[in-house]
Amino acid sequence: MAQDKFNEDTLSEQPAIKQLHEKLGYEYLHGDQLDPDLIENCERLSRKDVILEGRLKKKLAEINPRLTRESIDKAVRKITHIQAETTLEANRIFHKMLISGVSFEQDAGARRQNVTVNFIDFKEIDKNEFLAVNQLWIRGQKTADRPDIVIFINGIPIVIIECKSPVAKNTGVIDAQTQLLRYQKEIPQFFRTNELLIGCNLFGAKYGTIEAPLEHYHEWKEKESGKAPNMREHPTVKEMLKLGLIEEKDLTEHPPMQEVLIAAILKKKNLLDIIQNYIVFDYSKEEHKVVKKICRYQQFSAVNKIVKRVTTEDDKRGIIWHWQGSGKSLIMVFTAVKLRREEEKLKNPIILIVTDRRKLDRQITENFQNCNFPNPAQTKSMEELYSLLKTGSGHTIMTTIQKFRKPLVAPLSKSKNIIVLTDEAHRTQYGNFALNLRNALPNASFFAFTGTPLNKKDRNTYRHFSPPNERYLDRYDMRDSEEDEATKPIKYQSRLPNLQIVGDSIDALLKGIFPEKPQKELAEIKRRYATIDTLLRAPRRVERVAMDIVDHFNAKIGPNGFKAMIVACDRPTAVKYKEALDKLIGKNRSTIVMTINNADPQEWKEKYRRTPTEEDLLTGKEVFQNPQDPLQFLIVCDMLLTGFDAPILQAMYLDQRMKEHTLLQAVARTNRPYPRKNFGLVVDYVGVGRELAQALAIFDKEDLEGIFSVDDIKREIIALGEAHKKTIVFFKSVKRGLPPEEVIQKCLEILCPEDTRVEFETAFREFAKGMDILMPDPCVNPFVSDFKFLGMIREGAKNLYRDESLALENCSKKVEALIHAHIIDSGVTEILAPIHITAPDFKEKLQIKGSAKAKASHVEYAIREVINAKVAEDPRFYSSLKEQLETAIETDRKRRKDEADLLKDLVSIKEQEERRGLVAKEKNLTPDEFAFYGLLEAYEQSSNENADEKRIALAKKLFETIKSKIVIDWIEKEDAQKEMRREIKNILREIKFPEDKSELFTREALDLARVRLPY
């Protein structure tokens, strides 16, 4: 394979089609075979059509043999004419119809009968048609797009795959995702029936749903994927390595992620399983917002293991350990959904979901309700719970373990058709309450969920919930979660050694708080207040810790737009922290979260009764999660330490002693992903680091790896130094003593190849991450100068090459501010700024860009920007400019011209673009008419003056004729377009236009009208 054939088609798109067709059994067509603009009697009447109605009707008749022709037509109309205000709402309505069918009455001779129409046969997979189509044109309101691969099931477009070249490595998948987001704006009707979006580039692949932001696209991993050929053995990869398109360091021992994802998700059985059981629309009542969610691989794995064990195995038990924040609640929803569908094996089971706290009970119930799960029953009393368990089947019941506090004389039910899902099983699932639960339901299946590893004392949990010799039915630990970016790593940092309680060292603490006191007085203080908890509450200590918290927050957390939580040892100390912060930063920057009781001091009732409740914060009603709101600190003592998801929370200032599961659950509040957030941070003021080391000994070592990254300053500095070397090496050949414009230009020339920019960006992000972690510590001083320089070059490359992947917005706000300040201070703002050819001061701006080569680079990319933006408005003119541009660049690449000549050619092309308007004016043509003139000129190259006059008149006639046929929403109406085609062809016949070119000209003229006249 020649090097120039290594592109997204040969390396990503074609392999994907081959895998779908040859390995997964999909039918295949090229998009041209479904293009009504290219072939007559096409399946689609228009490029606007997105559903292959002929195929759909055929399959509806096969899947639903009782349907009449009228009912089939009615069912098709149900999904082609969905009434909805937004694409997402239409998608939600369609999804419900797809998995549940649509019901209505049809004539059955002398009577009417109810029928339910199914669009997919989920039981007999082979009854469905799976069709993969590549390069299919879809026409939107103003433009047309051509997704790389579309998967139709029974004629309905269900999956879209966008492919990129693996040479782009890291940015390839991001570019694919960005393109999918653009398609959703330009051809929204195509996404009304979409269930899955995939962006891939052979090495990488991620999937998501409509309207999902980039960070909510995920990889799919298979634990058994090692059976497939790994990347090093892949024939295409070997060839790329030989040609130097990739490096040895880019390779892994795993198979290419594109092949893994397609094999897993698009296997026919799995795809239908995911559509039917693993997609939910999650409602936020407070924000009136809908989010479409699809399972991640660990959720798919856990649910299927549970269902398999319940339906096929004798020992129906198991423990699911998935790390905090990785989607454990959704596993329960997906499990309940899928168990409900096992009609033949389970016959409408009772599903009982047990928690040990009312707060969790309420949260899980709301999760089910928000995901539109049918009728979850949250029991209010023991009597209601017992009644539901005794009297029948089909209920999904939420309860707390405390409702089983009374022993029962006899079982409530001996049915084997009860499945119990318990949350945080280690806490209460082997005491008296749990014994009563098991006695009440002796034949039920029991599955335990935990967000933290089970400790060595929890062996009863294994005995109760696992078959012999099995620890976990499914496991997704901290390392898995962080590697997948489902959560962020948690860093631990001890603060203020002179105020920190180290183990039981009260003497050290007293000396830190009262350094001026003589030993005798310290001994008396110790005698009277000889407890750690008493000393934690000391007002002077709280004030000093509060000052340190504010200093730390203002330096490390606040500048990046994140927020924090202070965990006090008790409610009175929480109040002291609130008072201290009010004095330091004002009342609106912090709030205290606690319940006010009748016995509390009157002052508390007056000040804090109206503060946000725990429920307000848990349900998102409070403003803490709003980045624009000034509230930055939550002060708590026991609330919000479990179940609170606030991705904007980065730092937890810990001033309360904790241990074991409580500690792990609390610190996990900081690990939720958020834009620009690299890690969660726990700042320790009570010496929990030492307690942590002692407490963690109760867990199995293999379960703990990756929980904490203890903040070792030396290690971080070493990592920063390595990242610095890997980034600065790109410009080792550039002498920094040259004038700034020369240094900048030489560096930008090095970054000209896209793959070099990709590698530089990867290295720079690691460098920036290290700077973000350590700033403003003085240890970063040796690196600041180079960091500013590299950031400046990165900004220049973004502007010159129009490469948004290099935007500073991708860095933390701290480092972004540092770089921007340097650019201004260095006086190179204009040198780095992008140049636009339409700017009135273009020539003046060009003069400051340095050498002829620098000027040529700026002109080249400025021209490209204009061509890409305007090509649809006048395809012939701008396509001609593009050809001239590519010729000039290719000539320069082969060293046939010097830099001055290249610049001259590029400026000439730029001047042609400028003259376009003047030429139109000279010919007395409007910009719209001139676009049709250009189209005619491309078909008739005669330079005869008389011929040009005829061409001008014909352009006016064409434009006015098309304009006269415009009706509202004409782009949506095939009849209006047919009338236009007829009129255009009549004009062409009048002037004896070549018949063999007539069809192509008509199509191009209509495409031009869609852009110029999109009424």
Low-confidence segments, ≥5 residues, pLDDT <50? 500-504, 822-842, 844-849
Number of helices: 41
Percent in strands: 5-15%
Total number of beta strands: 26
* Amino-to-carboxy terminus distance: 48 Å
- Mean pLDDT across all amino acids: 79
Give the name of the CATH superfamily of the largest domain: P-loop containing nucleotide triphosphate hydrolases
Query: How many distinct domains?
Result: 6
Overall form: globular
CATH topology of the largest domain: Rossmann fold
Largest β-sheet summary: 7 strands, parallel
**Structural class given helices, strands, pairing?**
alpha/beta
Q: How much helix, percentage-wise, in residues?
A: 40-55%
- Cα radius of gyration in angstroms: 33 Å
The CATH architecture of the largest domain is 3-Layer(aba) Sandwich
Sheet with most strands: strand arrangement: 15-16-14-17-18-13-19
Quick one: CATH class of the largest domain? Alpha Beta
Protein model, in words:
With 1015 residues, the chain is an alpha/beta fold. The protein has six domains: 3-45 and 124-273, tt1808, chain A (Alpha-Beta Complex); 296-481, Rossmann fold; 490-711, P-loop containing nucleotide triphosphate hydrolases (Rossmann fold, 3-Layer(aba) Sandwich); 715-832; 842-922, no CATH class; 927-1012. Helices cover 48% and strands 12% of the residues. It contains 41 helices and 26 strands. The strands form six sheets. Strands 15-16-14-17-18-13-19 form a seven-stranded parallel beta sheet, sandwiched between helices. Strand 9 (196-200) and strand 10 (205-208) form a beta hairpin. It is globular and about 115 Å long. Residues 500-504, 822-842 and 844-849 have low confidence and may be disordered.
